[in-house]
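Researcher: Let's do a round of design. I'm pasting the structure tokens now; please hold your answer until I've finished.
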């Protein structure tokens, strides 16, 4: 029964799927909600139809999940890195085998295109493979001390970690948090976004099938209240959060009460700087990749596109031509390149940013309107046409705030010095990008960016080998890459005396 939603995927099309199985997972199985009374409908963004009910977990359920994770942690943390790696590689293999079904369910729940969803699932099994590879390498140091004494350090897990995720990359975020956590010997309780609750439990089933101890990866459903129960629970050692800045601050505050470690992956308003000596075709493609993946709902998007004045006309002509040509529609069709936004309120919020931009003097070169696809079943979907805004100034709302939708703001600049200053004039600092053929300038600009990533001559290329995370209010801590091991483990120093104790007393 557990896998029936997934098993129905091959024949599923937009507007047909209803998910009825329980979406919580602990103790090695799906768990029905204790009471249904606070159930919230989850909508299929492409149709506006109800996909399933999300029933938030209360205090007792959260505690049950955490206790189950703790029991699993006791077993898992005693296994060697190589033993853990073997189980994780099996999980990666199963995930790869089911990639198409998982991608379909992800696209149905999130609205991203099937083409992108497949890339997301492929990133996910690669993340597990990557951390499986690191699991066997975890080690401490041996340090010699006077008189034959010595010390060594052990890299140990933290215990039960909590992951709280956003709705834009539901499966990737669950994997990005769980894979390094498990590689280091931790257990993890994961809370998906209430708007995208259906695929985290598939990940739980895969880990279970691969052979992790029951409880090692738990899923609890819920929103702010359930999230705050997790952040306050005394048995939780660490919280890794992906989402908005205001919620990130709350998570940090709550976690501070019991001194839990925190990783925050928050929002952005990243600059993409295009110099006149760039390869224009690539810069245009880069600007589209920086703005329109997952309907523009990506934290590291380069939404402030600074273009050197001399090439502005050519850049705009090309970028508008290509933006207008983006096929918007049914996310499950292979030819679609943009699906619906996550929700009606999100669509309204993004359209609101476009009208505000117009009021403040920006010019809409294309898009920015609600979009009704010709297919009748998509009439109730949350679609909009991708938008390019020209005539933007640094003080406009659309240039200062994270829109989280398919809206690119284009700004002219004259000199390198000026654009660096303007690019950094934001409280965010997640990513940045530069297009130029001048190799020295590229590295000079990269070094000047107050951001966790700088892409040179590309954008949004974030493979799992590379640390990902923010400067300034975009958060702290890193995900992906080798360094993330540091964020899911701690060092114990063991000091060994080989002679007699020299006492001062
Ligand atoms: N930069 C990013 O990665 C993201 C940015 N956003 C931005 O945030 C806006 C709002 O979207 P939301 O999904 O509501 O973001 P959010 O930051 O409120 O939610 C993210 C996660 O935190 C949980 N959460 C909410 N309140 C909590 C609390 N008090 N304690 C613990 N957990 C809590 C949510 O249930 C969800 O799982 C979006 O319109 C977008 O602009 C949203 C998601 C990701
Ligand atoms: C793009 N990716 C998958 C590296 C980050 C996901 C976090 C986010 O966009 O909210």
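Researcher: That's everything. Go ahead.
Model: Designed sequence:
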């Amino acid at each position: 029964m557990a896998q029936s939603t997934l098993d129905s995927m091959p024949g599923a099309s937009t507007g047909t799927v209803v998910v009825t199985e329980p979406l919580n997972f602990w103790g090695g199985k799906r768990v029905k909600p204790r009471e249904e009374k606070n159930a919230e409908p989850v909508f299929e963004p492409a149709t506006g139809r109800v996909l399933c009910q999300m029933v938030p977990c209360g205090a007792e359920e959260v505690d049950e999940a955490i206790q189950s994770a703790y029991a699993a942690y006791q077993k898992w943390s005693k296994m060697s890195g190589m033993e853990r790696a073997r189980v994780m590689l099996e999980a990666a293999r199963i995930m790869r085998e089911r990639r198409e079904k998982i991608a379909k369910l992800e696209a149905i729940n999130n609205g991203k295109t099937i083409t992108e969803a497949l890339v997301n699932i492929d990133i996910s099994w690669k993340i597990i493979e990557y951390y499986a590879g690191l699991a066997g390498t975890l080690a401490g140091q041996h340090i010699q001390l006077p008189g034959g004494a010595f010390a060594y350090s052990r890299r140990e897990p933290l215990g039960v970690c909590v992951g709280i995720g956003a709705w834009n990359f539901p499966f990737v975020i669950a994997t990005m948090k769980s894979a390094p956590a498990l590689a280091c010997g931790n257990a993890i309780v994961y809370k998906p976004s209430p708007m995208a609750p259906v695929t985290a439990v598939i990940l739980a089933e895969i880990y279970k099938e691969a052979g992790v101890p029951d409880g090692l990866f738990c899923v609890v459903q819920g929103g702010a209240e359930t999230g705050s129960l997790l952040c306050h629970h005394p048995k939780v050692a660490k919280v890794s959060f992906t989402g908005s800045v205001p919620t990130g601050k709350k998570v940090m505050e709550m976690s501070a009460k019991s001194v839990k470690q925190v990783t925050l992956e928050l929002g952005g308003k990243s600059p993409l700087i295009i110099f006149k000596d760039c390869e224009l075709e690539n810069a245009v493609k880069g600007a589209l990749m920086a703005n329109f993946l997952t309907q523009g709902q990506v934290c590291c998007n380069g939404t402030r596109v600074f273009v050197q004045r001399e090439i502005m006309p050519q850049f705009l002509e090309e970028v508008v031509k290509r933006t207008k040509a983006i096929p918007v529609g049914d996310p499950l069709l292979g030819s679609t390149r943009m699906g619906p936004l996550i929700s009606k309120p999100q669509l309204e919020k993004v359209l609101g940013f476009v009208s505000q931009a117009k009021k403040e003097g920006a010019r809409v070169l294309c898009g920015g309107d609600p979009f009704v696809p010709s297919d009748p079943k998509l009439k109730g979907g949350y679609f909009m046409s991708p938008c390019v805004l020209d005539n933007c100034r640094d003080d406009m709302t659309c240039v200062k705030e994270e829109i989280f939708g398919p809206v690119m703001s284009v700004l002219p600049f004259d000199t390198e010095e000026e654009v660096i200053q303007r690019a950094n004039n934001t409280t965010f600092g997640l990513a940045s990008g530069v297009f130029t053929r001048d190799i020295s300038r590229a590295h000079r600009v990269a070094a000047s960016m107050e951001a966790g990533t700088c892409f040179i001559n590309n954008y949004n290329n974030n493979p799992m080998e590379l640390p990902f995370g923010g400067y300034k209010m975009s958060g702290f801590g890193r995900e992906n890459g080798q360094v993330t091991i540091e964020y899911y483990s701690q060092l114990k120093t063991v000091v060994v005396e080989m002679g007699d104790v020299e006492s001062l007393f």
